[in-house]
Every structure is written in C-alpha cells, then in structure tokens.
Amino acid sequence: MLPLYLNMKSNPLQKANLCTRLFWWLNPLFKIGHKQKLEKDRYPVLPKDRSQHLGEELEGYWDQEVLRTQRDSQEPSLMKAIVKCYGKSYLIW
Q1: Taking Cα atoms as reference points, which of 45, 34, 37 lies closest to residue 9?
Q2: Spatial distance between the Cα atoms of 21 and 27, rounded to a whole number of angstroms
Q3: Shortest CA distance to 91 belongs to which of 82, 78, 56?
Q4: In a 3-state reduction of DSSP, which class is residue 86?
Q5: Residue 53 CA to chain centroid, in angstroms?
Q6: How far apart, in whole angstroms, are the C-alpha atoms of residue 61 and residue 9?
Q7: pLDDT at 7 (0 to 100)
Q8: Distance (Å, rounded) from C-alpha 8 to C-alpha 30?
Q9: d(CA 23, CA 71)
Q10: What crossing angle do the helices spanning 78-92 and 51-72 adopt, rounded to 10°?
Q11: Burial, 35: exposed, middle or buried (Cβ in 10 Å; 0-12, 13-18, 19+)?
Q12: 0.90 exceeded by the pTM?
C-alpha cells in the first residue's frame, strides 16, 4: 500500500524562504478553507516532521539518557530526553 502523502501536492514550506516561513506559505490554504471545508486540500507532512524520523531521533536521546543514568545509578527521565530532543525548537518559537 502506498502512503497517502504521495498523491498530495507538494508542501510549499519545502521551498519557502525565511520571510515566507512565518505564515505566508499558508495563505492559499486559508483562502480555500474560508470558502469551503478542507478535505483533500491538506499539504503532506515534511520528511523531517514524519513520526518515524521524530521517533528515531527521540529514541537516540532516550538511549543517551538511559546510559547516563546507569552511570549515576538513577532512574531515566523521559521528560529530560524530550526536552533535550525538542526543547531547542520550542524555545525558539
């Protein structure tokens, strides 16, 4: 079975410059959504935002957390792994 995102139009955020990345790349989608219910008008998820990629990235930080806590004889913290993995991107916004 082919993934659904292959049949969709390309995500304009892939080609957007810094100024456009703020919100202007969503304007065409907002116009369509204002006129009708959004159904097949969604953009596909960017490769860097797919759950498989994000899960693998978090797994790497979790493995580091487990190794760190084994040395210190502590319990590993999932919250610490999440903050190390995604904290910088949320801090910027």
Answers
A1: 45
A2: 11
A3: 82
A4: helix
A5: 9
A6: 33
A7: 56
A8: 17
A9: 45
A10: 130
A11: exposed
A12: no
Buried b / exposed e over 61-81, threshold 16 CB at 10 Å, is: bbeebeeeeeeeeeeeeeebb
Are residues 68 and 61 in contact, defined by beta-carbon separation less than 8 angstroms? no
- Model confidence at 93, pLDDT cuts 50, 70, 90, reads low
| Pick from 3, 26, 32: nearest CA to 13 | 26
Q: Which residue in 40, 39, 43, 45 sits closest to 26, CA to CA?
A: 43
The residue extents of the domains of the chain are 15-42, 45-93
CA distance 67 to 76: 9
Answer positive or negative: Cα dihedral of 48, 33, 23, 86: negative
3-state secondary structure of 80: helix
Centre a 10 Å sphere on the Cβ of residue 12 and count the other Cβ atoms it contains: 16
